[in-house]
Amino acid sequence: MARLRARRDGAKGECAPADEAGGATSPEELIAAAHSACYAMQFSAILGEAGGTVEALDVKADVSLGPDKDNGGFKLTGITLTVNGEVSGIDEAAFLKAADEAKATCPVSKALTGVDIELKATFEQ
Questions:
Q1: Are the C-beta atoms of residues 27 and 4 closer than 8 Å to each other?
Q2: 17-54: pLDDT as tens digits
Q3: Strand locations in the chain, DSSP E?
Q4: pLDDT one-digit tens code per residue, 61-106
Q5: CA distance linking residue 48 with residue 1, whole number of Å
Q6: 118: number of Cβ within 10 Å
Q7: What is the pTM of this model?
Q8: Cα–Cα distance, 110 to 38 (Å, whole number)
C-alpha cells in the first residue's frame, strides 16, 4: 500500500508518493501517527482489563490517499492498522477480540468512520 501526500504545485493540486516528500511531513502521515498512537493506548488498556500483560506491542497505520471522484480533490481511501503483540496472561482469541474492540473504541478510529479501516492483528508468543 503506497502512502501518498497532497502537494500543491502552483494552482494545480497533485499527489506524490510519501517517499518523495523531501523530508516534509504530510497530513496523511500525521493522521497515521495519531491513529497508531491512539490505537496502541486503547488496545493496551483493553488487554490489561482482559488480564493480559503487554510484553511488546508494535502498531503501524498506513493511510492511503486518492482522488475524490464525487466531490473533487482528494480523500483518504483507506487505513490499514497492523499490530503485532506479545502479551502474557491471555490466549490468541482474547488478543484478537481485544484488537477488534480497540479498533471500534479508539477515538481516532471513531473520528475516521468515513474511511475504510482494515485491521491486521498478529499474536506472538
A1: no
A2: 555 566 788 999 999 999 999 999 999 999 999 999 99
A3: 4-9, 12-17, 53-67, 74-88, 117-124
A4: 999 999 999 999 999 999 999 999 999 999 999 999 999 999 999 9
A5: 32
A6: 12
A7: 0.81
A8: 11
Distance CA 55, CA 74 (A): 39
Strand-pairing partners, residue 54, are 87
DSSP 18: G
Could you give the maximum distance between any two Cα atoms of the chain, in Å? 56
Question: pLDDT of 101-110, one tens digit each?
Answer: 999 999 999 9
Q: How many CB atoms lie within 10 A of CB 98?
A: 25
The type of residue at 67 is P
Residue matched to cell numbers 480533490: 73
Phi, psi dihedrals of residue 50, rounded to the nearest 5°: -85, 0
Q: C-alpha cell of 5?
A: 501526500
- CA 80 to CA 64: how far, in whole Å? 9
Query: What amino acid occupies position 58?
Result: D
The number of residues making up the chain comes to 125
d(CA 73, CA 96): 36
